[in-house]
Amino acid sequence: IGFGLVEKGRTISLVDAGVIKTTIGDQTAKRLVELYESMKELVSELKPDVAAVEKLFFAQNITTAMDVSQARGVILLALAEQKIPIYEYTPLQIKMAMTGYGRATKAQIQEMVRVQLRLKNKPKPDDCADALACALTHLANGVNARN
Question: In terms of Cα–Cα distance, which of 57, 67, 62 is closest to 22?
Answer without folding.
Answer: 67
